[in-house]
Amino acid sequence: MTIQTNLTGLDLRAEIDRLRKERNAVILAHYYQKPEIQDLADFVGDSLDLSRKAQATDADVIAFCGVRFMAETAKILSPDKIVVLPDMAAGCSLEDSCPPEQFAEFRAQHPDHIALTYINCSTEVKALSDIIVTSSSAEQILSQIDPDQKIIFGPDRNLGGYLARKTGREMLLWPGVCIVHEAFSETELLKLRAQHPDAPIAAHPECPAVILDHADYVGSTRGILEFAQTVQGDTLIVATEPHIIHQMQKAMPGKTFIGAPGADGNCNCNICPYMALNTMEKLYLALRDLTPRVEIEEGLRLQAKKSLDAMLTLASGTVGKGDLGPVRA
C-alpha cells in the first residue's frame, strides 16, 4: 500500500480536527511549540502537567507535540493509551547529556547518594533515579529530604546549581545543560535592560547563573506565564524559549514581551531546534497513521514510574519534612 505523503492542498487544520475525533485523540502542545500547533491543541502547558491532563481523559490516543522524553512520560503514566510523537527525532540536549549507562556507573560510584533527577531525561534514567522533579516542584521536594542525605542532581547543572544556591543544600551535579537556555548572553541582556530599565526579567532556572542573577523572577514556563499576568508594568523581558510569548500575548494583548537575546543580540539560537521538528504536517500524519508510536517495555516503565510516583507524593505534601531519610549504602 502506498502511503500518501504529498499533502499539497490539504486543509491540515480541518484534517487534524477530523482525525482527532475519529481516533478519540487528545492533542498536547508544550509552551515551546509553534503558535499554530499551540492554537489547535486540547491542552497547552508544561510537560508533566500535560501528561497528567491526558491521563485524566478517556482518550484512546495521545498526540504529544513536544519532545521525546515528554511523550515517554505520557506513556509511563498512560500505558493503555497509544502515544504518538510527530517526529521521533525531537530529542533534548539534557537527555542527550545523560546516557543511561554513564548515569548508572556514576550512581554506582556514589552508593550513599540518592538520585534527584530532573524530568528532562530518558525513561532509562528515570528508572535509575529515586525521585523525579520538575522545575516547579524541585525546591519543595528538596526541602522534604533529610538534611543528612547526600544527593546526586542531574542532568541539569544550572537548575541544580540554582537550587543549591537558593537552599544552601550541597548536591553532586551532573554536568548537563539545555542548549537553548545556555544561548542567552549576559552582555546582550544588560544592553536590553538598559533600553527598558523598568522592565522586569523572568527567567527559567535552566539558564546559567549569570542570567539568573539579573532576573526578577525565576521559575518554570508555567510560572513565568503566571508571573507575566501579575507583574506591574507593560513590558517584560523573557529568558526562556520564546514560543511561550505566544501564550502571553494571547492572555495579555496590551503588554509587550521581549525575548532575551543570544550572543549576537539578534539570533534565533534560543529557539529549541528539537521542538521545531514538530509541524502541522507531521502531526496530521501521526494521527492518520498512528506513528511514530512511543513504546516502553513494561518492566522498564514500572521502574521509571516509581520515581515519578515519588515526585507526585512529595509534591502533594503527603510526606512530612525529613520523612525521606538517609539511604543505606
Break the fold down into its secondary structure elements and pairings:
Layout: H1 12-22, E1 25-30, H2 35-40, E2 43-45, H3 47-55, E3 61-65, H4 68-77, E4 82-84, H5 93-96, H6 100-109, E5 113-118, H7 123-127, E6 131-133, H8 138-142, E7 150-154, H9 157-167, E8 172-173, H10 179-182, H11 186-195, E9 201-203, H12 209-212, E10 217-218, H13 221-230, E11 235-239, H14 244-251, E12 256-259, H15 280-289, H16 298-315
Parallel strand pairs: 1-2, 1-3, 3-4, 5-6, 5-7, 7-8, 9-10, 9-11, 11-12
Give an overview in words.
- By secondary structure, the chain is α/β, with parallel strands linked by helices.
- It contains 16 helices and 12 strands.
- The strands form 3 sheets. Strands 2-1-3-4 form a 4-stranded parallel beta sheet, with helices on both faces. Strands 6-5-7-8 form a 4-stranded parallel beta sheet.
- α1 runs parallel beside α15 (280-289), α3 runs parallel beside α4 (68-77) and α13 (221-230) packs parallel to α14.
- The longest helix has 18 residues, at 298-315.
- 45% of the residues are buried.
- The model is unreliable at 318-329 (pLDDT under 50).
Features:
single chain; 329 residues; 4-stranded parallel beta sheet
Poorly predicted runs? 318-329
Q: List how many beta strands DSSP finds.
A: 12
Strand content: 5-15%
What number is the mean pLDDT? 93
| Strand adjacency order, main sheet | 2-1-3-4
The chain-level structural class is alpha/beta
Cα radius of gyration in angstroms: 20 Å
Tally of contiguous helical segments: 16
